[in-house]
Amino acid sequence: MQAFSAFLIPILDLQLLSLVAIGTFAGIYIGAIPGLSVTMAVSILISFTFKWDVYPALSLMIGIFMGGVYGGSRTAILLNIPGAPAAIATALDGYPMAKRGEAGEAIGITTVMSFFGGFVGIIVLAVAAPLVSDFALRFQPRDYMLLAVLGILLVGSLSGDSLIKGVFAGALGILIGTVGLDPLTIADRFTFQLPELRGGISFIAVMIGMFGISEALMQLHDVNKAAIKQKISRIVPSWGTVRKYLPLSLQSSGIGVIIGALPGTGGDIAALMAYDHAKRVTKNPEVPFGEGAREGLVAPETANNAAVGGAFIPMMTLGIPGDAVTAIMIGALFIHGLNPGPMLMIEKPDMFWFIVGALTMANCFMLLFGLTGIKTFVKIVEMPRSVLIPLIFLLSIVGAYAVNGSLTDVYWMLGFGVLGYFMKLYGYQLGPVILGVILSRLLDDNWRRAIISEQESLPMLLKGIVTSPLSLVLMVSVILIIAAKTPLWRRAFGTRG
Amino acid sequence: MSVVRTRRPGEAVFSLFLAGVSGFLLWTAFGISGFEALSSPGALPMAAAGTMLVTALAVAVQTLRSAPDKAQTLARDIVPMPIVLTVVLVAGYALLLKPLGFLPTSFLFVAILIRMLGGQGLIFCAAISAGSVFLIYVVFRVIFNVLMPEGIVPEREILAFIGSIFSGAR
For residue B1, is it within any domain? Predict the structure, then answer.
């Protein structure tokens, strides 16, 4: 009953409902405009909402997350530019449909299927998270430590071509997270006797720099790229069309939730896997894949929205973010004094059910806003980049400054922005950096707890790991991820590293 | 078919830079508490910096071994002038924010950047900049209550004056 009341809060409270609606609406546009990403928007938003109560702040961020994942599909269809990585697969068949004059139909199918996928993801989150959370209570500090390492390694290995670069990025993030006074011994760590560094580096400045400034700098390479205009036809799909693709969307939702729930994976991988699945199970598509097959739209769009619910499962139950956006969401919860993980699920179950309620409403608003206002939308996304990019810079600077009213944070943001720009340019992924920053504290605390409980003995810790089935599974997973990228493994199994 | 990896301009310098920084950070991490204990405050920083150094060296070796990409140039593909100027402008913004204040600094920053990136007319740049800075100011100062440096603009007095007009109208 208490859970149901918490679920209803964002539905019955007009202010929170409006914030979810505003967030979803803004998220659709942010996700759609190339150069603006959901990660960027949520990281900038934290700096403005940190003084708010937790419910309004979360309502806005959840709306942006849900809307943003969907919004990326629109520019993928209309301009062949995926607004977000999760919409890369959508462009493969969406844009050919638009070129045939079926942009409206493509957007309609995408919207309805995204709604369906989002709904499946939320149901699985509501059912599975309490079970996972109960299980997570049995976790020992060494398990959390291994889980954090696993999460960073997965992001590093799955989000880029090079595991070595992914590991470097994750280690850099962990190191950034340790800067400042050690919370246990008050020892200085990387402070260089500077008082400004004793409180650590603001993770918001790091996030805005890495995702806001570096992305905006990357966009400067294509500042004069012209947009191709599309004609919009019928938007709302017929019931017959929806019914026809329902079995495929259900399968794709399953893929989306599972992939989304794995730490380190997100909507982009889920969408590509679902697209691949659709190609394999669709024997005779009306139009070939890559030339405007509707199945090629249905599968990735259902999967990437189902992955949103999935990504909240490890975040809420284990405190391990599923991807960069949920890493930032964890940061937002930290700012509001909440510590995501199994204890949060027990001590504050209302928070979990509130998030489920807000996600449900965001999904409904996504359907509503997705099927309306498309002609106005087309005009807005055609805004010249030379106007858009300066505004991204301004918002990023204001965001970095606003949290502590400190210019030092602006310089950090700029420094990490430039570093992130070069890292991106030379093939390093930035997701593991943020994951490292967020998980640094969890890793530090649990490593020290684990090793102290084994009387500072590494052999004893290893013995503890190999004699516990859960620790062993986690340890083997860590080893397998590293081994899978070695030349020896490639020779043995013939895969590309 | 294997893909031959090429080295982009500046990539070797960047990878060596990361390796150098990682080495320095490992040395600094060692200075926190040395090898005092596995649970010491320096243990995780040393592990992180050590991992950074090993992986950065591995990347540096890979990069140095790969053939340079001759189709790209540093000035055109890696650090083109708009990027250098933008970074300088952001740093300039940070320097001027306190003495000049949010409104004039932001106006100048956005107007100059639009002009530099798009080459539009001065009036267009000024109008877009004024409109967008005003909107951002209203949203963040009035709605989100984010305080930005006032500088040379007496914001509080202006806001109080506007407030008094509305209270007078009531």
Answer: no
Distance from C-alpha of A231 to C-alpha of A77, rounded to nearest angstrom: 11
Which of B94, B117, B144 comes nearest A407 by C-beta?
B94
Of B73, B88, B116, which residue constitutes the final position of a domain? B73
* Domain end residue (candidates: B58, B73, B88): B73
Q: Tokens 């949290």, residue?
A: A403
Report the C-alpha gap between A148 and A144 in whole angstroms.
6
Cα A88 from chain centroid? 15
Number of domains composing chain B: 2
Residue linked to tokens 């204001």: A398
B116 and B148 in a single domain? The answer is: yes
ipTM: 0.91
Does B32 touch chain A if contact means CB atoms closer than 8 Å? yes
Residues of A in contact with B132 (CB under 8 A): 391, 394
**What CA–CA distance (Å, rounded) separates B170 from B164?**
10
| Cβ <8 Å between B55 and A168 | yes
Where in A10-136 does DSSP place strands (E)?
none
Shortest CA distance from B139: residue in chain A: A48
Contacts of B120 in chain A (CB under 8 A): 386
- B67 and B129 share one domain: no
Evaluate whether residue B68 is within a structural domain: yes
Digit-coded pLDDT (tens) for A235-265: 788 888 889 999 999 999 999 998 888 766 6
Quote the tokens at residue B111.
């107007």
Clarify whether residues B62 and B111 are in a common domain.
no
Asked whether residue B60 is assigned to any structural domain, the reply reads yes
CA A376, CA A380: separation in Å to the nearest integer? 6
Closest Cα partner for A14 from A361, A475, A435, A396? A361
What global pTM score does this model have? 0.78
Query: pLDDT tens digits for B36-95?
Result: 899 999 999 999 999 999 999 999 999 999 999 989 999 989 999 999 999 999 999 999
Structure tokens at A123: 């149901």
- One-letter amino acid at B33 equals S
Helix, strand, or coil (residue A188): strand
Structural domain boundaries enclosing B105: 80-169
